[in-house]
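Journal club side-thread
Mid-discussion, someone asked how the predicted structure for our own chain would compare to the paper's figures. Pasting it here so we can look after the session.
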Amino acid sequence: MKVGVASDHRGYDCKKRSLPLLKKMGHEVEDFGCDSTASCDYPDFAAPAARAVAEGRCEVAILFNGSGIGMSIVANKIPGVRAALAHDEVTAGRAREHNHCNVLCLGTDLLSDEHIRQIIDKFLTTKCVPGRHDRRIAKITQIEEESRNIPVNVR
């Protein structure tokens, strides 16, 4: 599977430590940055990785930053992306199985390397299960389509 990865400065070290695991699992990896621990803006890296998933260039993406929240917000702005912030194997597995999530967001300040390894493994080895949740996934897609042209009042 082709896996996109991205981080900000807070998630950089964890992303780099996760690359050998992904390759050992047999995945092809595309790294969308960042390239150091120098302060940077997470939207600059989350958006290209999420777009690669939406466009089919990557099957899934894993995004690393301090809390995981910012990356999750950015990724979910991209049509066709279903990003989940997972804190354990249960949420990672259910995100794939029930919600057909294609982007995993991780809060690297909150999790140990071993915990992150377990979450990544669960996310990548869990399949999206058709059936019971299809109706809900279709509703999410419908909301996404209906929301494309809503005027936004952001201050």
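Post-session note: The chain has a mean pLDDT of 96.
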